[in-house]
From TrEMBL:
<keyword id="KW-0472">Membrane</keyword>
<feature type="region of interest" description="Disordered">
    <location>
        <begin position="1"/>
        <end position="64"/>
    </location>
</feature>
<feature type="transmembrane region" description="Helical">
    <location>
        <begin position="69"/>
        <end position="91"/>
    </location>
</feature>
<keyword id="KW-1133">Transmembrane helix</keyword>
<protein>
    <recommendedName>
        <fullName>Pyrrolo-quinoline quinone repeat domain-containing protein</fullName>
    </recommendedName>
</protein>
<dbReference type="InterPro" id="IPR002372">
    <property type="entry name" value="PQQ_rpt_dom"/>
</dbReference>
<feature type="compositionally biased region" description="Low complexity">
    <location>
        <begin position="1"/>
        <end position="15"/>
    </location>
</feature>
<dbReference type="InterPro" id="IPR011047">
    <property type="entry name" value="Quinoprotein_ADH-like_sf"/>
</dbReference>
<feature type="compositionally biased region" description="Low complexity">
    <location>
        <begin position="34"/>
        <end position="58"/>
    </location>
</feature>
<keyword id="KW-0812">Transmembrane</keyword>
<dbReference type="InterPro" id="IPR015943">
    <property type="entry name" value="WD40/YVTN_repeat-like_dom_sf"/>
</dbReference>
<dbReference type="Pfam" id="PF13360">
    <property type="entry name" value="PQQ_2"/>
</dbReference>
<feature type="domain" description="Pyrrolo-quinoline quinone repeat">
    <location>
        <begin position="115"/>
        <end position="271"/>
    </location>
</feature>
Amino acid sequence: MGQQHPGWQGNQNQPPGYPPSGGFPQGQPPGQYPPQGHYPQQGQYPQQQPGYGQWNQPPGGPPPRKKKLWLWLAPVLVIVVAAAVAVPIVLTSDSDPAPSQAGGPDQPAPASKNWQLHLDRPEYEKGLGAWEVGSTVVVAHEGAITAFGEADGKQAWRAPAPDGGKFCGAGTRVVNDRLPVAFGKEQTEQGDPVCKFAAMLDVKTGQLGWQQPIDLPQGASPSKPTGAALEIMGDVVVIGQKYATAGLDLATGRQRWMKPVVKPTGGDSGSSSITGMVPGKQSLIVSISGFISDPAITFATLDPATGTLGQGVDYSSKDRGEGFSNPRLVSADPPVALVSRGADKAVYIVLDDKFDKVGAIDAGHPGTAESLAGDGVGVDATDNRQPGRRFLISGGLFVTVTAIPLNGTNKLVAYDIASGARKWERPLSDGRAIMPLAVEGDSVVTLVSPAKSDGDQRIARFALADGAPGPVETYPLRTRSGGSPITQDFRYFWHDARLWAVRGPSNKHDLDAFSIGK
């Protein structure tokens, strides 16, 4: 029997339950952004759908002069299913980024080979994840998984979904150049893939290996699964899909075991489901939500060799109107979950290795300037698809950004994890903090995008201790319409003073990948 943690009373001004992706307003069609200066609401967790592809960016000033090269890239031989049509890519480079003031002392950015590209993608196509593999960045979209060279942005390979279907899930990490993926050959009435197959992808070559059906019992649920969580653990590929889990042989894809989701803490009503799954040190960390069962959420380990759930810890609420639900794991080390509370609130829970609560961060009211960004970071994370995170943890602090408006400003903020109190905040008078990228020395390296559609991107540094602004480097980055890209829809990789970014949801007016830095 696992432990039980009664509900702890946090700030009662907590936010509506965040969706796992997007950060787009409720009641608006996909791709429609709110008026200038408005904050997109996070919506009701977990039915939120991210916006795709129909945003008309306000024209900015004339873009900087760059060398343009049109590359018509025919599919290479390593692609499993050769596409009949070449993929058009616009590739631009800029070797001389300019410095400017951005909240701290400016510093000339040294000469570098920056690049950006735009892909012709289907409208409303969703993003599933991104990884850095050797000297490439790999991004998974529903239609294809593609690798781009970090040095120049040129396409290294492209693997379309088998049999004209759509990808619907991927592992959060690459292991020995292998990535487990899921795909569907059929589609729902909404155009989502029915997620019924698993495969192994070689991320060095883009070749798909074994392909196996996913046939997990889904209880009495009338809905068809449109996503899956997959992770490599040792010689097993573990799949989590709503009400059941399975283990496949890494080499062959043959199913070794299958088990329904039953809470290891007891008191299960038979309707528990996996909502999150991330690789831990020795086992998988899973989050479980119960539809009727009480307590409502559970954190546990999953043994990849047998599928056995153990070390369970339950969390319940003293107030039935403030019950916990939909725990989405967004970090494994340390374990962090974004949890819905009641009908319209949410909270980040930081855990230790035994799943005891270390701290709780109130995420605020979505749709307001003070709420914390809780989107999937370019990933449509519904139905077991795993979200990204827009925070980092260092020195006992939880560093993140407030809600990111389409146009306007926001804040970089830091919370003391132990108390949950906001330790410092850094308002940006002329920009939007998009992502804390890393802690280097005593500084938080942060991507800051312009408050309007015609400014430059900035790599800014702020003191970890108090948020004091430090050096800033600026880089011009323009879409084909001349404005700034919607940088909150990208996944990021930062090291060696350089940033690589790949877009999740498709947008015909925006960039799909870029690299800036030294």
